[in-house]
Design brief:
heterodimer; A: alpha/beta; Rossmann fold; 2 domains; 5-stranded parallel sheet; 8 helices; 18 strands; 26% helix; 29% strand; globular; B: alpha/beta; 9-stranded mixed sheet; two-stranded antiparallel ribbon; 6 helices; 27% helix
Chain lengths: 325, 255
């Protein structure tokens, strides 16, 4: 009997998240002949997304559609997963290492008494075993891990594994009922979407990030304009967050988020070691800083020594020009 | 209110990582309380100030972990518990099993922890613990108000803010912005020396080695490739901006 792989898909802003396709790709890396794949899609009004997802899954898509499932809730989502487990017993479960997957992964792992390897950035098949690479100290070091047995839960970091391509034939869609077991002990009362329409920081291909040199909350304006032109996201250093220029949810570093975009533009960031841990795996790093001695220049592919308030608007203009063509 | 705080001791975030003999070297390394756990300790203190009760800080770790626990006592926690991990092959499964075995014998209203640890960073343990204890949890909270048997919390969900009502007992993990952790005061440090400090082993908690055996293991360690300093652009700002965009197109081929 082959193994059963299961991907827990994720919906954000009415679309399937890219990391779901990356999780499916992770499964195709690990999978062998005779293994099967299932995907689980949980949300509200997700019928079109189920058909979209089915195009990428060589197996079954379980779709659980209910108004109460619109926003992630660990108890509700676990009860859904239990319903799915009555149909299929997975050997390996893959989720995105996102706000949702980071939470749901360990919920499922504890429920199934399974091991979990979190925040995987690369994987490789080594005869029968799969070796999972993940960062330590936010990327100051990397470890390769493997499972010693039992059911396996894996969360993968967005933007690191290529997305899956379309399956040879679309998956069968199985709709399951949501039947919560009793009343929930935690209930979402309200949600303030500060990020609607914006690119998520950890998934952004381009990140424009500000540090102490940005000087104020208003100082982030030119960075936001540059990010908008590039369809990127805005991040910040710890110094900028501590100074109250921006929200902690924007912090990049060993405390805060780790990002691995194609292009990272550091504006007025000196490059403390704890910040470097959160961004030095970016493909191209650009540093803009007044201080030519700033450590950020030691890791930057391209550096501009100068005042970010003069340089950033010029860059925005320049990108606008070339992207308009 | 019986409050428990889950603690981990980690390298200071300013430390560089050195690998020697296939292990991460801790030679000369400064250890601190995991920064996210500081928020958890502070929140416990704030809640105890408002609602009364006791705070017990709990850690699974080697002997040196006692120092981080004493820091929490110096901040104002009442008791510390160190569950010895020496000689154990521990992963997140193991640690959560040990914590669940200990907490299963306690009476608790509120359990707080950090959102993740800045070393291995999986963010699994607190969430697993809630499942093992059969109580609800909310991760990554930035605000907490407790009224009777219910907590109202704000959760950071990738930049969006969710407001939740959660019935206690429950587990919460702290995100940055939850509060401003205090520094231990000198009298606090003196008092900490006299506070109850319990040590126990897995066996004493009724957990056998096979019960809590790790489900995952490390097979290798490496450092990321070192980045080279690139080039500093020249000319006036407008020229530099134009050159940068040109280089991104032609050299990096990203635009």
């Amino acid at each position: 009997m082959g193994k059963t792989y299961m991907v827990v898909a994720e919906v954000r802003g009415g679309s399937l998240r890219q990391v779901t396709l990356e999780a499916l790709q992770a499964v195709s890396i690990a999978k062998e002949d005779g293994d099967s794949t299932a995907a689980v899609l949980i949300g509200s009004q997700i019928t079109p997304l189920a058909s979209e997802l089915a195009n990428y899954v060589d197996g079954q898509v379980f779709s659980i559609d209910h108004p109460e499932l619109e926003i992630y809730n660990p108890e509700a989502y676990l009860s859904v997963m239990k319903t799915v487990f009555e149909r299929v017993s997975p050997d390996v479960i893959v989720l995105g290492h996102t706000a949702q997957g980071r939470d749901l992964g360990p919920v499922i792992a504890a429920h199934l008494a399974a091991g979990q390897i979190s925040d995987v950035t690369a994987m490789e098949k080594n005869s029968d075993d799969v070796l999972y690479t993940r960062p330590l100290y936010a990327g100051k070091a990397f470890e390769q891990k493997q499972f010693t047995g039992g059911i396996q839960v894996v969360t993968i970091r967005p933007n690191n594994i290529d997305p899956a391509s379309a399956a040879t034939s679309p998956a069968e869609i199985v709709e399951l009922e949501y039947a919560p077991a009793g009343s929930l002990r935690s209930i979402v009362k309200d949600i303030v979407r500060k990020t609607s329409g914006k690119v998520d920081l950890t998934e952004a291909k381009i990140v424009v990030s500000g540090g102490r040199g940005v000087k104020s909350a208003e100082g982030f304006k030119p960075l936001e304009e540059l990010a908008d032109v590039l369809h990127g996201a805005v991040g910040a250093s710890r110094a900028a967050c501590d100074a109250g220029y921006c929200d902690y949810s924007m912090q990049i570093g060993q405390t805060g988020k780790v990002v691995t975009p194609e292009i990272y533009i550091a504006c007025g960031i000196s490059g403390a070691i704890q910040h470097l841990a959160g961004m030095s795996q970016s493909r191209i790093i650009i540093a803009i800083n007044k201080d030519p001695e700033a450590p950020i220049f030691k890791v930057a592919d391209y550096g501009i020594v100068g005042d970010l308030f003069e340089v950033v608007p010029l860059l925005t203009q320049e990108f606008r020009k070339v992207l308009a063509v | 209110m019986n409050i428990f705080v889950l603690l981990k001791q980690t390298f200071d975030t300013e430390e560089r990582i050195v690998i020697s003999n296939g292990e991460i070297s801790d030679d000369g390394v400064k250890y601190v309380m995991n920064p996210y756990d500081e928020y958890a300790v502070e929140e416990a203190l704030l809640q105890r100030d408002q609602h009364g009760g006791t705070i017990t800080v709990v850690s699974v770790g080697p002997d040196r972990t006692a120092e981080a626990l004493r820091t929490a006592l110096a901040m104002g926690a009442d008791e510390a518990v160190l569950i010895q991990s020496d000689g154990l092959e521990a992963d997140e499964y193991t640690v959560s099993r040990l914590l669940a075995a200990y907490l299963g014998q306690q009476s608790y209203d509120l359990i707080l922890g950090g959102n993740f640890s800045v070393d291995s960073g999986g963010g699994q343990v607190a969430v697993r613990l809630a499942q093992l204890l059969g109580i609800p949890h909310t991760s990554s909270i930035t605000k907490m108000t407790i009224s009777g048997p219910q907590a109202t919390v704000e959760r950071d969900a990738e930049g969006d803010t969710e407001t939740l009502e959660v019935s206690l007992p429950a587990v919460f993990t702290a995100q940055q912005g939850l509060n401003e952790p205090r520094y231990p005061s000198l009298p606090g440090i003196m008092k900490a020396k006299k506070k109850p400090f319990h040590q126990m082993t897995a066996a004493e908690l009724g957990v056998s080695d096979t019960d809590a055996a790790a489900k995952t293991k490390r097979v290798s360690l490496s450092l990321p490739p070192k980045r080279q300093a690139g080039r500093i652009l020249q000319g006036d700002y407008a020229q530099q901006a134009a050159e940068l965009v040109h280089l991104l197109r032609t050299e990096a081929k990203l635009i």
